[in-house]
Specification:
With 464 residues, the protein is mostly helical. Helix content is 76%, strand content 1%. The N terminus is likely disordered.
């Protein structure tokens, strides 16, 4: 009894501590972002300072969500992490830098604090809606009762995909080993569907992370599959993003399942930091090899990498925002909801800010700029309406996050698959700016499956 009582006290203490830290961080972030916006409007000479303050405010908001609602934090991480990098990049560009994709030099515009403001709305609304949904409908975990037939099917499909990808490498070769860029490789590949199979590794990694928590004895098989997907991404020419996303989605699936199943809080320790540091170091080593051997960068390779890292993520926002803030009228909904046969989304933005030669070259090879959201909103509907749509985006993130958390709690692998697929589409739309994907039949189909899986799980219906 004494042991159980002490455990309760420890858990209560952690809960109170997490609550106090959350309130402190949230209030601090709101004060800072308000100050940054005020300074940005009052004094144009302080634009970069206000951007820096806003960057800190954004970081504190995400940190407060980590302390208060870790499940949402891990689901939002593919959004919040890359948007933080875009904010850092925008801040860097406001200091003045050469943007090779636009063949232009950047300058202070006040764009960083505006970017912070839009993304602050997205994630603040996501948090408030997620917490409201969780309070309205509490959902218990009894997922261990689920039949193992779905696990067998999952592993069979995962290894089938891996075998197909390995066979394609043997037949058509590896861009990494051949010393060619992956964009050229895929442009000439006779079966582009192979690229789609490779991208399924993201959602499979998430699913495998969940399986590892519910079925610890399968840990070796899970780690082998995730490691194989990482190696395949490297062999298929991915420098960083593809490999990093496989690892990221595996970690997210594992920790979300741990939180809903164990009712605990994940703490980042020395071992986790060390492993993450080793992975990042290896990825930067791979990037160095690509830039020095495949891209044949002249001069300082490290300087080129650093410059690309700090200018790449935020230059689309900087370019579009600098056009719109100068007084250009919004162009309407076409870039947001255009059909696949039209130039829309991030390609539409690229056409506005890149020289014609660069744009046509990128379009022909299937290369896109990064982080087209929320730039696509301000260019389409203007600054005011874009703020409202950012709130809608936060609402969508919260709904998918809540439903996905619930089906993970019930270990409903069909629902988790549909949820992760919905999450990936949402991530691509709200990171890259390809918002028309949210009106696509595939997203609606997977979201409906997710909702149906949530419903039947809550009613206790079992299919096997």
């Amino acid at each position: 009894m004494e042991s159980n009582s002490s455990k309760v006290k420890v858990r209560l203490g952690l809960s109170l501590y997490g609550g106090k830290v959350f309130v402190l961080l949230l209030i601090s972030s709101m004060v800072l972002v308000s100050l940054a916006v005020a300074v940005g409007f009052i004094d144009a000479a302080s634009w970069r300072f206000s951007g820096g303050v806003g960057m800190v405010a954004y970081f504190l908001l995400i940190l407060s969500i980590y302390f208060r609602e870790q499940k949402l934090f891990w689901i939002m991480l593919p959004f919040s992490m890359f948007h933080f990098l875009a904010i850092v990049s925008s801040y860097y560009l406001e200091g003045g830098a050469y943007i090779s994709e636009q063949e232009a030099y950047s300058y202070p515009t006040g764009g960083t604090i505006r970017l912070v403001g839009y993304m602050y709305v997205v994630f603040f609304v996501a948090y408030m809606v997620y917490v409201s949904l969780a309070r309205l409908s509490r959902f218990s975990s009894d997922g261990r009762k689920q039949s193992g037939i779905y696990e067998v099917l999952l592993f069979a499909v995962v290894w089938l995909f891996i075998l197909v990808l390995l066979a394609a490498l043997l037949v058509f070769g590896s861009p990494l080993l051949a010393g060619i860029q992956r964009f050229e490789y895929w442009a000439e590949h006779p079966y582009p569907v192979v690229h789609s199979l490779l991208q399924y590794g993201f959602q499979f990694s998430f699913l495998l992370g969940v399986v590892q928590i519910y079925r610890p004895r399968k840990k070796s098989g899970v780690l082998l599959a995730v490691f194989t997907f990482c190696v395949l991404n490297g062999l298929y020419g991915e420098k960083f993003t593809g490999i990093f996303l496989v690892v990221l989605y595996y970690i997210c699936g594992m920790y979300i399942a741990s939180l809903v199943n164990m009712k605990g809080r994940f703490k980042v320790g020395f071992y986790q930091i060390l492993v993450f540091g080793v992975i990042v170091a290896l990825l930067f080593g791979l990037i160095y090899f690509h830039y020095s051997s495949i891209h044949a960068v002249q001069g300082g390779v490290v300087d080129s990498i650093v410059s690309r890292v700090f200018s790449l993520q935020g230059h689309t926002w900087w370019g579009i925002d600098s056009i719109m803030i100068s007084g250009k009228e919004p162009v309407g909904m076409a870039p947001l909801v255009g059909s696949d046969g039209e130039i829309n989304g991030v390609y539409y933005l690229m056409e506005q800010i890149a020289p014609e030669g660069i744009f046509k070259s990128y379009l022909a090879r299937g290369i896109t700029f990064t982080m087209g959201f929320p730039a696509i909103l301000i260019y389409s509907v203007g600054y005011g309406t874009a703020l409202f749509l950012c709130g809608v985006a936060g609402f969508l993130i919260a709904c998918v996050a809540y439903l996905l958390t619930c089906v993970i709690a019930q270990y409903n692998l069909i629902g988790i698959f549909a949820g992760v697929k919905s999450l990936l589409v949402l991530t691509h739309a709200l990171n890259m700016g390809v918002v028309n994907l949210l009106f696509d039949g595939k997203f609606i189909f997977y979201f409906m499956i997710l909702m149906f899986s949530f419903y039947v799980s809550k009613k206790g219906v079992r299919f096997a």
